[in-house]
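Handout, section 4.2: multi-component inputs.
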Amino acid sequence: MDLHFGDSKPTDEERAAVDSLLGPATSAWEGAEDRSDADLRWARGGREARERRDLLLPGLHAINDRVGWISEGALAYLCRRLTVPPAEAYGVATFYAMFAVKPRPAKVLHVCTDLACAGNGSAKLCADLEERIGAAGSAADGVVWQPSPCLGLCERAPAALVLQAGTPSDTVPAQRDPRLRDVLTPGPARLPDTAGDTDETVGGDTGGAGVTPIRADLASNGAVVTPLRAHANGSSAEPAPRRQAFAVIGPATVDTLVEAATAPEDAPEEPSAAMAVPQAGQDGLMLLQRIGVVDPYSIDDYRAHGGYHALRTAFDIGPAGVIREVTDSGLLGRGGAAFPTGRKWQATASQPDRPHYLVCNADESEPGTFKDRVIMEGDPFALIEAMTIAGYATGAHVGYLYLRGEYPRALHRLENALTQARLRGFLGDDVLGQGYAFDIEIRRGAGAYICGEETALFNSIEGFRGEPRSKPPFPVEKGLFGKPTAANNVETLINVLPILTMGAEAYAAIGTGNSTGPKLFCVSGSVERPGIYELPFGATLGDLLDLAGTPTEIRAILLGGAAGGFVRPDERDIPLTFEGTRAAGTTLGSGVILVMDDTVGLPRTLLRIAEFFRDESCGQCVPCRVGTVRQEEALHRIKDRTGAEASDDVALLREVGQTMRDASICGLGQTAWNAVESAIDRLGAFK
Amino acid sequence: MTVIPLQLPRRLLEFTLDGEPVRVPEGSTILDACRAAGKDIPTLCEGDTLTPKNACRVCVVEVEGARTLAPACSRRAEAGMEVKTDSERARTSRKVVLELLASSTDLSTTPRVAEWIKEYEAKPDRFGPDAARVNETPKIDNDLYVRDLDKCILCYKCVDACGEQWQNTFAISVAGRGFDARISTEHAVALPESACVYCGNCIEVCPTGALSFKSEFDMREAGTWNEEAQTETTTICAYCGVGCNLTLHVQDNEIVKVTSPHDNPVTHGNLCIKGRFGYQHAQQH
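Output:
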């Protein structure tokens, strides 16, 4: 490999951003400015240099977070550091919606225009914004705004997210990668090397010595208020540099949006995660029991509320015992595919190839889905514990938590949770003194729905474009880095805790024969109490709608998100189970229940779904790349037509849809026509 | 001369292909089995010198019991499998895939595609006059070859040939996403500023003519390109001692293009800039 990096040089800021992740360049071979005698004598390169490819995405984030966009010089420097061909890195950078390779302001306002927000006035919001700060995509006053796919804030629709690039927080150790250990930022978050036996160094609460007091350092919205370290090149006399910050606004008005976009640091505090759980604090909840009850920043509070009982049980019964319990519980994957979790773990654990990996899929991007966000924000330690158990059962020593890039608050809380768990010996070389080593790395996505597909997610972590791989081989055999991998959704993992604490038998007694346990539902749209609901499997659609409170005039209900299907308001008897929805010819998907009245109109909603798939198709295979475009064009043509006037295009949609379903590589293309088909067949759209 | 490499004998496995039992060596793809049985399946992104990317989906076949269709080029045959290559479902998908491609890209120089469009009764016009197209103009930024991305179907073959599968130069990649994805250098710089070494191995594998010799591109523009009037002579490159086979495509006593036989054990179809483009000294002027 003879790489060609061009002549563009990084600015000091860009270099500092990359160095904050990778440490300073130690040789001219990887981008140091001065060439030393040793550089002339010994080349750097080869396999060892190339094996850091998986740091490409974190590197792109580091640049984008600091500068707001990725210049030629910055990309070339990052490529030099990681021995990655610039053309490939450019292909990766342009794959993600949150990165820009053209200059743009440091503040980017993402305004959700997806289904739930569209039903709550996002169109008007966008029109007002256009008047106040200009057209989408055009920069004005240091801000650029853009319409966004679902931000996972559906209970607070219409919602928006402001991200401000700037110098980062000193308090959060971004990585736990051994290759990066030496370069962790010095500061209060610096981990002691003896992460296993720190009980004596840590006080009883989050403020103990050595524990990251993240919360103290963060304003309500993540703006950092600690003093800045001197800049790498000593230019500390400059005016106060811009800080990284974010603001989540919902429900948004144009005034709050403009305000937040002007000064994200000063935006009002985001409501507690418990606000998204109407049942919060009720008895009998299993998955949501701690949301709004525990302090999400405190591992002690988590333990006081039953935390880490399940992990101790796991160590008591051993990995095979855990797999047996999970298999006997009948737990099916909650990410949408409903694969038996026990079988997946068993298949991974029994692979002779080493190492094994555990991946938690927290790239929650299905329009209408926000359950994983609420769990990660409200009960982050539960996910850490569940991942530890899953890693233990499958023989993995490293777990990757792939978190969608649009969830900054969940990121902060999870990072804090990881730091605390390490300090207390719940993660590290010797978890709870049981001789089992396990640690978790968070990897942030950067705006790509397709990365929720597990093999695309692997490619994304590995530093390649997030394009799905063909199966077989399946991840349990060849997954992340080509090794046996168990990939599970957040909600699936969380279910393992009650399985171990109450036993498989008691767990399996909940729900129906084939769908056991509790299920989370993301209810949004025109309901009185939108939010996450936990119900045992077996409840009907009507039961859930009664809980959430529906108006009398409902046009349709979307089950399972954009990749799911519509049902009629009179189909309240559909049991919300995997087999019940299948028997009714629809799907449970990720548990989305989106209630629509006539505000937006069905053709417009279908068009939004089609736009979503067109935008989010990775472009790898023809049926999906071109098919999603043709689907959108046809829906555009017939948005005001019915009957004979629409019948030709409906026939065209059917044929293209069938081809996408049959011939696409992955689930995105295969389901891109589901919702439209169900609207035509079930709701009688375009009749 | 074709060299048959010695290897361990492979076990045969039996499966059903369009109702007939067939036996193929273990590890064969469904496409291998189809070809051995004399069946013609359209392919675009499959290449004899590359690992299939299975991106074009024009070779899909129906495997009994599978939820979706399978790409024949990369799905390995399994014992007991029942495969239908000509079912209604497979034919419909192939037809629509051809329509989707032909309605968005210029397939005028793609070998055999006109024949397939006729065979599958594909109607690329059905998406209407406003159907979005790739809409690219040819990139002519060097004297050796032209990138006409309007003809590109994103089969990834050039990326694979430039990158890890052959040349290890990594000058190009897919950039952007979805319908806006394009084969590109970093920041879309011109080829002379990129890592390109002009080996032309991307041209060798391009299935649509999106990548072509400047000489071929110019002659096509001028209307003088005439494959029927061309002769092909395979010789050995004289530049160095490796002994690469060159196939010289000659029209009107001028070399208009250089390829290399894909089954040649030295080149596998690959050359370097000298073998591929360094033929001017042979021309008589």
